[in-house]
Each structure stands twice: as structure tokens, then as C-alpha cells.
Amino acid sequence: MRHHLREINRVPGAGWVNGHHQENGMENMTLFEVVKIGRSATQSVVDDWIETYKQDRDTALLDLINFFIQCSGCKGAVSREMFRHLQNSEIIRKMTEEFDEDSGDYPLTISGPQWKRFRINFCDFIAVLVRQCQYSIIYDEYMMDTVISLLTGLSDSQVRAFRHTSTLAAMKLMTALVNVALNLSINMDNTQRQYEAERNKVIAKRANDRLELLLQKRKELQENQDEIENMMNAIFKGVFVHRYRDAIAEIRAICIEEIGVWMKLYSDAFLNDSYLKYVGWTMHDKQGEVRLKCLTALQGLFYSRELCSRLELFTSRFKDRIVSMTLDKENDVAVQAIKLLTLILQSSDEVLTAEDCESVYHLVYSAHRPIAVSAGEFLFKKLFSHRGPDEDELPRRGRQSLNGSLIKTTVFFFLESELHEHGAYLVDSLWECASELLKDWETMISLLLDEPVPGEEALTDRQETALVEIMLCALRQACECHPPVGRGTGKRVLTAKEKKTQLDDRTRITEMFAVALPLLLAKYCVDIDKVTNLLQIPKYFDLDIYTTGRLEKHLDALLRQIWEVVDKHTDTEVLEACSTTYHYLCNDEFTIFNRVDIARSQLLDELVDKFNRLLEDFLQEGEEPDEDDAYQVLATLKKISAFHNAHDLSKWDLFTSNYRLLSTGLQNGDMPEQIVIHAMQCTHYIVLWHLAKVSDGSSIKGDMVTLRKQMRAFCLMCQRYLSSINTAVKEQVGCFYHSVLLSAGRAAQLHPGSQFVTRSYGQQDDEASKIEALHKRRNLLAAYCKLIIYNVVEMNTGADIFKQYMRYFNDYGDIIKETMSKTRQIDKIQCAKTLIMSLQKLFNEMLSELGFTFDRSSSAFCGIKELARRFSLTFGLDQLKTREAIAMLHKDGIEFAFKEPSPQGEGGPPLNLAFLDILSEFSSKLIRQDKRTVHMYLERFMTFQMALQREDCWMPLITYRNSLQAGGDDDTMSVISGISSRGSTVRSKKSKPATASKRKLPEGEHSSDAVWLNREQSVPTPVMMHSPHLTSTVLRDPNKMRPEDSYTPTFSMPAEQHPHQALPPTQVTWMLTQRQQAEARQHQVSMHYAKMRNHMQQAIRRGSGLMEDDEEPIVEDVMMSSEDRLEDINEGMDFNTMDIDLPASKNRRERTELKTDYFDPSSIMDDSVLNVSMF
């Protein structure tokens, strides 16, 4: 393969074809290309290079030098003359000059599988090269000196590619030399032992020749060792010492990774404080990638017990830093820090203090599962791995077993951590290392049921509660096989082995707890927390085992205990757990269904009969209800409501009794609020079950009539209770009301509900510190927003919600933002109308509070403007998708701004004119064509006097007009462009109209609108007509331009006028209508043109807004479409187009409107940035 490694120089006549050297018809490749392709084995490539080196070392070294240069991404090559006559620094400077600066990529940073393989091949090549040369060539004082000198020079280059590549090569070269030094050290030790053994022989048996030979061999090995150490010192001091603190994190990471390898391979030479200090210092690096390499390097050292004893000084010096890294902002770094502390813990129990361990313990509750699992392993090693001498004699199972003491330890830790609601997180953290312990449910049951032996301390009530919770979490983990909520991305696909383990565990759980659960419920029947957790266990049962294992008597015992629990408890959580357990057991797919169904029916019969009996006594009393009777009614109602949540109780006809109870409460006004809430809840469940049956098609004749009656009665009852004074009742009734309406999908009168939701906002400041109250209000808001999303109520009712987006962003921002997103998906235009309506509501509220003379710099006005900016950002970057919605938003905003007359009388600004300043926040979302159309629509509401105003009160109008004119092709379009199609050429401000280029429209042909639509059907674009600043407002009848007269709430256009139109009607209706109205006014305008022209010229000359060089401004009438009139206009006017210089805007966003396109890269980076070097 020697022909593969020929010298390749970029010299004319060398036979280059397609970038390769040609000789005798055979294509040659450089070392870089061979390594890049990776087809040949590295060993054979190195062997060929060695053969070349033995014949001509200059040629071989030149190939190797070019190999490193090309691996850096440099297009240049070192010639033979350069190699012979120039120093390394001069060669590097020339290569830097030939480096391609157009791209910042080079082989080590280019992505893709090919370049990943190249990095591996590059490192392998260096390692194999040194290994193959370790017996002869590396000691010739030429090859290694040249390579080390070159790499040292390149590593100090300002070019990142040179520095990165040469540092990687130097570090891999150093690692290869460390291997050589290690082999030499081993050979020296073997030679020394052989020499000692030979010398210790008696003189008669001693071989002097062998002694001399061994001495000579040891001397040679020592010389080679010294030379290798000199090479390593040169690389370490010339490259590592400078590059371990390089500006590039990747280079620093390479250095730290390799020094860890050196210390592990050749610990005698490198495992000392002189080298360890670099790792310790770099643990404070700003980049997580570098910190991670430090930890993995140290892990490799602490894995070996022999090396741990030599790390005591380092550990004492940097232990605190390692402990602090368990809280690193990079999760991967934190995981490796915990694993390193686990290794340190295994090496010695005395290194880590109790405070150090406690800082790791609490991480078992981390939401990031890898951190929690690592912390769980640390906890297991610390608390559970140490066994005493007598523990091997303990039984394997039961209260007195080893697991019994370990389970107690787990309970103690769980309680001491004071995070009792995170038992599932603790179990999940310990599952991978202590699953056998957590699956010892037999021992847990024994600890709960068996009496303690003499001398054993019994568990306290608090400890038993914690043990029940841990046991339940372990059952859930075994049966569901996925992390708890909040930890992990979701369920993963189980392997066949995991599925078998899951089935075996579920079978064992059923067989064990089918017998033990009734006993546990009997013992802890009155304890709310224990019973609630115990009642969740049956949902992990395999119900077939009750029949196949002949465990029916234990099922009967369980049902009896559940009955006892229902009878003794009134706590909602316990009752819902009982209801859920019955729901799981009442599965008609299993043979136990009839047995459980009978028990459930008997229980419900008793509850309903008791409720009806108590209700009669409760309502018949003429005096105030007795507290005991009210308590009995409430307790029974709670139980019925809890069961009605999961079971259909329609056959017991509870609606009549509950409606009677609620009606009595409204009439008397003294009904306890809890009775009202639970009665309303029960009625709510009744309606929902009827709706479910109707929607499923399982209803019978007459159910629909009953449902209508119940729905009407329930809605009326809810609305009456929503107007009550009691806040708790209103909150719960509001949730029930919204739930039923959402399920029914009917649009009812929701004014009380919407007002209630709005009022609940105002209460949030007083109860912000109460998390429970905040959750209730969030639920109410979410319920009401669902009604909007599912079209139960009109979308515009969401304006009262959207206007609070900024004010209550921290508490409700996520709900409101999601609601806006969903409504936009349903109807973009209606959503935009709702957003502008919310801004209008806030504006009106501000006017009523501050008056019409408010300051636009006030916090109230700035808040509305900031809210508009936030709304604008929600429309995204795709202007075509939101084009119609944004256009309609501007239309509604303009109409609102000019809707009310000026409170100052004639000549004053309209009352809502300042709203245009708010509306300008949405101008950036308009495309250029729509900006012109919106500008034309704005001018329909303006008078000539408005356009000339420059007072501060008129600044919103000026600001809004500027925002509409910014970004257009030309702010003063010519007459030709005003009447021609969209493809016509727009002349500049200084150019005169060319009459030869005017286009006549044949008689009978469609209008310019229709022509434009015909041409642009593929891209739906409303008709845009760009007008000069003042013309379209001056050339109108002032009497017809009053805002109240010109305000038109809706527009329509008959479809037959444009049968060829491909646009949606909503997109162009109001845009085309105003264009048609403008054309209708052209004839009237042209008759008075001469008089108006004189008036216009005088008005402009009096104005202060003209440019200094505009002595004879022209007024172009874009409303005129006749070519004859155009010629008349231009006949006596030989001067340039008018341009009015408006005052600078105070609006922050408007000051940047006239800049170049933000999305153009050239506008983001100036010339200094674009031309900067990548080095």
C-alpha cells in the first residue's frame, strides 16, 4: 500500500485530477483520506507508513505532517521545500494564511456518522502508530521530536481548528506514550528481579555472562524510559499545562479526560498531587461538560481500592466541592457526583460526615429520576449494606428477619425526611437497588399485624401510617412498572422478562393481601389515613384468583369490612376510596361480579332509605333544624354522593329528594352550606349519568324527556344559587354548573357564571397566600374556559378572561394562554375579535377611572399597551396564517377609536383616539399589502384637519399611521400604481409619471379589483391600493367624513359580482367594499378637482411638515381612474411627489419600524460581524 502514502503537493504539472494525484492511471490517497474513509485496517496503514519511513523518513514525516494539517480542515499542504527550509512556526503561519475562513466547521466538529468514525479512526491511528514504533523508531530522536514540536506549535495557534485537533492528537499521543512507559517499567521490574535472582545464586551456579546481559538490558530499558519521560514531559508542559484552561470547553474536556486515563494506567508516575490538582481545579469549570469529565476521571480512580489510599489528601481537599456538585445545575454532572460519593463511601466510612450524607439523602425525592436513583443507591449503601455478625442467623421472613429491621430503618428515614407526601418517590428511588427489600410484603404485614416480641419496641401510630404508605407505593411500583407522576416521561414498553415478573408479582400480591387486607381493615378501621391507603390495594389484585384460589370467604370478609368503613366514616376521601374499590370489584368480566353487586345494592338500599327517612324529618320540622339531624342528613348525603360519583344510582330516583332539599334551602335561606354543596353535587351526578346513558344510546323511552326536565331544573337552581352570598356555595355550584353544561354542550344563559368567575379574580389579592383557595379559583377558571373552548358559550365572553392575562399572569397565565391558543385553533377571526374586545374593555375602564384627559405614560395605559404586545406575540411568525384575523382586528380597533365624538367639541380628537397607540402593537403582524388596505380604511374616518394636527393629543393617530406605512415598497404610490394591477411598476418619489406606460381598461372589462384577483388567485391577497399621505383624506366631502356617519359595523359584498373570485368571503369583504365605495366617489371628486387643488396647495404651504427642499409639492389623486383626467392633472404640474415629514414617534416599537427587515441576516450582523474571523 505504499502508493497510498505518496507525497501530494499542490504544484503545477503534478497530475491533479479531481483533487487527487494521478500516477500510471492509479489514484493515490493521502493519509487523511485513508483514515477518513476507514476501509483499510489501521494496523496495515501504519505498517505501510513505517516501511516508507524506513526508506525515506523525510517523505514519511511530510505525509504525517500533512495528515495533521488536513485533519484540522486546512486546504493547504506542506511542500518538501517548506519542510526542509522553514521552521514549524513559519509553516504554521503559512498554513493559517491558507485556511478557509468561510466556514467554522472542521472534521472534529462536523456532525454525521462518517465524521464520528473519523474521530475514532484518528485516535486509533495515533495509538497504533506509537505502539508499532515503540521498539525502534520513537527513539531515533527525529520522528517524535518533529511530531511533538509540530503539535506543540499547532496547539498554541489562534486558529481553533488547529488548536483543537493538535490538542486531541497530543493527548492521545501522550496516552500512547504512557502505555509504552508502563511496559518499560514492567520490563525493568522483571529484569531487575531476574538480575537479583541470578546474583543471589552461589558462585558455582552463577552465570556471569547472564548477569552482564541483564545489566545491559536494564541499562537500555532505563535509557528508553528516560527518553519516554522526556517526551511525556514535553507534551505535558508544552500542551496540557496550557490547554487544560483553554477558552474552548471541548479542548479542556479532552485534557481532563486523558489525564484521568494516565493516572489510572500509570498510577506510580501520575497518581500524585502534582497531577491531581489539575482535576481538582477544573471541577470549578463553568462548563458542565468539563466538570463531568473531572468526575468520570475520578470515578475511574476510586473504583480501585488500591488507588483509594493514595487519594486521601485529594479527597480531604476537594470533598466539599464534590458534595456541592450533587446540586449542580447540569443533571448529568449531579448524577456523576452522587456516584463518585458512593464510591468514596464504599472505600471508607470515615471520609464523609453526617452532614455530607444528609445533603445526598434528600435527593431521593428529586423530580429528575437519574439523580434520585443515584441518591437511592447512596442511601442503600449507607444504611442497608452493613451487616452485623449476628444478622446471618436471623430468619429470612417475618417480623424478626433482617428485612424487618431494614424496613423499620426505611420507615424511620421516611419520617425524618419530613416529606411524607413523597413516599412514591422514595420507593422509586430505591427500587433498582432494594427491590427485594421493598417486595417483602410478608414482613410488612407481619410488622402491622403481629404483636411485638418481649424486648422489641413496637411501631408507633405515625410509623405504622408511614409503613402502610410505603407498602402501597411498593405495590403500585411492582404492578405498574413505571415511575410515579412527575418523574419520568411516561410509560415505557416492558420486555418479556419484565412482563413475566409483573404478572408473578401481581399474583403473589393477590394471594397475600386477599387474606391480610380484611384483617388490616379490621385493625385500622377508624384510622382515616391508613384506611384510605389500604382501600387502594384491591385495584392491584388479579380478581380471577378469588375464584381459582377459592378465596371467596376472604372476599366476603373484605366486603363486610368495607361496609363497616362506610358506616363509621364521613370523610370524603375515605368514602371515595370505598366507592372506587366497589367499582373495581364490580367488573362483570369476573365471576365474583354477582357477589359484589349484591353487597353493593344492599349497602346503597340502606343508605337511600336512611336518607329519605332523615330528609322527611329534617324538612317537616317547623322550627330551626336540629344540629344532630342536620349532621345525620349531611353524613348520609356525603356517602350517597361519594358512591354516585363512580356508580349509576338512577334507579333510586334521588333527583326529587335532592331538588326538594335545595328548593327548601332557597326558600328559607338557612340551609347549612355543606348540605347545599353535597345536595348539588349529588344532583349534578344524577344529570351526568343521564347524559352518559343518552350519549351511549343505552337510554330507554322517556329518558330524554326526563333528562330535559332535570337539566332545566338543575340549571335554574344553579343560577339561583350563584346569586347567593355564600362564597363556598358559589364556588362549588359554579364548578357543577360548568361541568353539566360542558357535558351537555348546550348554550345557556351564563351571565351569572361568567360574572362569578370574573369576580373571583378580584378576590385573589386577599387570598394569594392560601394555596387551597388558589387551587379552587384555578379550577373555576379552567371550568369556565372549557365552556368557551367547547363552544358552549360565545367566544366573545372570553374577553373578560383575556383582559386579566397580565394582571394575574403568575396565578392564571397558563390557563388563559392555553385558552387563547385553543380558541385561535377553532376560529382565528373570532379569537382576534375577542382579543381586541378585551383591550377595548380595559380602555373603557381606564377612561371611566382617569377621565379622557389621562396621561399616556400612566401605568394603566402602559399596562394595556403591554398586554397588546403580549397578544401580538401569540400570533406567531407566520403572517399568512393569521392574515385575516389581524386585518379584522385592525378594522375593529379603528372603528372603536373613531366611534365616540370628541368630548372637547368640534376640532378635538375623538374620545378613544388613544386606542390607536395600543392598536399599533399589532401593525407588525400585517403583511405589506394589508398595511396599505388598513391605511386606506383608516383614512375613511379621518378629515383633512386631522391629518394636519401635530399636537400631543393627536400623537396616537400619527404613531398608528407611521406603523402602517413602515415597511411598504413606497409610501407615495403614483396614480398609475393606484389603478393598475398589483404587478405594475411603482415609480419612486422623484420620478415623473410616464404617460406612455399608462394602461387603459377596455370597456366592459372587470374593474381593477377583478383584474388583480384573476391574476393572483393562487395567492389570496386582498386588494391593496397605496395612497399618498394626505390626498385621500383631502379629496372627500367633509360632511361625509364625520366618524359617526362613516362608521359601518358590518360589510357585505354580493358573491355574484365576482364569480371568479377564489378568496374566502371573510377575507376580502370589508377590504373590497371600501374600495368599491372609493371608486363610487371618484366622479364626484373629479368635478371639484381644480378648486380643491388650489385649496390643497395653500394648505400644504401653510403646514410645517414639508421637507425643506419640497418647494412645489404635488398632490396626486389616487381615487381617479380615468386616463384623461390623469393627463389633465399632469399637464400643469411638473414637480415632484409630496412627502410629509411627521414628528418622531415616542413609541418604542415604532422607532425601529423603518429599519431593514429583521429577518434578514445582514440586518442582524453588521460588516464587522460578518467579516470577523472564526478563530
TrEMBL record:
Transmembrane segments: none annotated. GO terms for cellular component: chromatin; chromosome, centromeric region; cohesin complex; nucleus. One of its GO terms (biological process) is chromosome segregation. One of its GO terms (molecular function) is chromatin binding. InterPro entries: ARM-type_fold, Cohesin_Scc3/SA, HEAT_SCC3-SA, SCD, STAG. Residues 240-325 form the SCD domain. It is found in: Nucleus; Chromosome; Chromosome, Centromere. Residues 181-234 form a coiled coil. Keywords: Cell cycle, Cell division, Chromosome, Chromosome partition, Coiled coil, Nucleus. It comes from the Eukaryota. Residues 979-1008 are annotated as: Disordered. Its main location: nucleus. Component of cohesin complex, a complex required for the cohesion of sister chromatids after DNA replication. The cohesin complex apparently forms a large proteinaceous ring within which sister chromatids can be trapped. At anaphase, the complex is cleaved and dissociates from chromatin, allowing sister chromatids to segregate. Part of the cohesin complex which is composed of a heterodimer between a SMC1 protein (SMC1A or SMC1B) and SMC3, which are attached via their hinge domain, and RAD21 which link them at their heads, and one STAG protein. Belongs to the SCC3 family. PANTHER family: COHESIN SUBUNIT SA-2, STROMAL ANTIGEN. This is Cohesin subunit SA.
